[in-house]
Amino acid sequence: MFNAIVIEKHDQGQRAAVQALDETQLPAGNVTVDVAYSTLNYKDGLAITGKGPVVRSFPMVPGIDLAGTVSSSEHPDFKAGDAVLLNGWGVGEGHWGGLAQKARLNGDWLIPQPKGFTAAQAMAIGTAGYTAMLCVIALERHGVLPGQGEVLVTGANGGVGSFAIALLAKLGYQVVASTGRTSEHDYLKRLGASEIIDRASLSEPGKPLGKERWAGAVDSVGSHTLANVCATTRYHGAVAACGLAQGMDFPGSVAPFILRGVSLLGIDSVRRPRADRVEAWDRLARDLDRDLLAVISHEVGLSDAVAVADQLLAGGVRGRVVVDVNR
Predict the structure, then answer these.
(1) Are 298 and 37 in contact (CB under 8 A)?
(2) Is 320 within 8 Å of 294 (Cβ atoms)?
(3) Alpha carbon 122 to its chain's center
(4) What domain range is 239 assigned to?
(5) Which residues does 189 contact at the CB level (< 8 Å), separation at least 6?
(6) DSSP string over 190-238
(7) What's the domain count of the chain?
(8) DSSP secondary structure of 115-169
């Protein structure tokens, strides 16, 4: 038997709670993992609370991230005892995920646990840090380099925002953080932000074009915020878009793209090829100040995760939530 958060659907909606399950109930897969740590991402919060159409089948074990040790494998790349990591691939949405003590998965979704990281550290980074690294790599490949001007990070207090600030600052960029939580200025400065602006300056309907300011940006918010970021990005700048905390809509104009040559770079982390995942994690091992992990993340037990999911969606959680599934 093992413990897991299980989301079940009923006539009044859905309910999430910790349950004891038998290993025979695990879904199909060619690798079974003893999970050590998982995380709570925004998508996990939507799944657990039912406030977003994330879960595609019931019952569902949420958790888009996991780190643990292979207990059995029929996949040629993995054997019992291997330390592995998973981010995305629809796990926690259409296939049972990481908020459990055991998981059975398709081995093609796994990568070896990156060298130099413990399982807890890997989950402190999780999909949020991995996505932030993908955003930074995309900006670099577009030609947005340190010294070219300010780089904006929206949703700065969230997981992606926190890691984007830390990574960009470590690489020498001048980072401006956008947040609605003025109490977190010291936190953002510690991560490396040189300036903090109020998210209200970006979150309302704006003009098709604004004053050019940003050499580049990482946006995890979407909607009016993304439209305004694009409208104020400098000639031939780029915006890496990876989230939709404000909304899925894009109430903007083509003006920044055809008059200033701005590029909107869509960042998908869910179905990313293995080579891209390994590259991103190798870069994290090289470019991330690991001392900041204790600043960005905090740990809870599996039994606490359901309650924390509500706090996460309400904007009451700073940075990353690491879940020790064995307590």
Answers:
(1) no
(2) no
(3) 12
(4) 125-266
(5) 196
(6) HHT-SEEEETHHHHS---SS----EEEEEESSBHHHHHHHHHTEEEEEE
(7) 2
(8) TT--HHHHHHHHHHHHHHHHHHHHHHHHT--TTSSEEEESSTTSHHHHHHHHHHH
Please give the chain's pLDDT, 327 residues, in tens. Answer: 999 999 999 888 899 999 999 999 999 999 999 999 999 998 999 999 999 889 999 999 999 999 999 999 999 999 999 999 999 999 999 999 999 999 999 999 999 999 889 999 999 999 999 999 999 999 999 999 999 999 999 999 999 999 999 999 999 999 999 999 878 899 999 999 999 999 999 999 999 999 999 999 999 999 999 999 999 999 999 999 999 989 999 999 999 999 999 999 999 999 999 999 999 999 999 999 999 999 999 999 999 999 999 999 888 888 899 999 999
Residue 273 lies in a domain: no
The CATH number of the domain holding residue 216 is: 3.40.50.720
pTM over 0.90: yes
Whether 283 maps to a domain, the answer reads no
Please give the structure tokens belonging to residue 114: 């990156």
Query: Are 180 and 201 spatial neighbours (Cβ–Cβ below 8 Å)?
Result: no
Say yes or no: 105 and 13 in one domain: yes
Single out the residue of 88, 64, 61 nearest to residue 4, CA to CA.
61
208 and 104, same domain (yes or no): no
Do the Cβ atoms of 253 and 232 come closer than 8 Å? no
Q: Which of 103, 29, 38 is nearest to 64 (CA)?
A: 38
Helical axes 305-313 vs 42-49, angle rounded to 10°:
110
Do you find a cis peptide bond into 112, omega within 30 degrees of 0?
Answer: no
Location of structure tokens 């918010």: 221
Could you tell me which of 53, 62, 75 has the C-alpha nearest to residue 7?
62
Whether 201 maps to a domain, the answer reads: yes
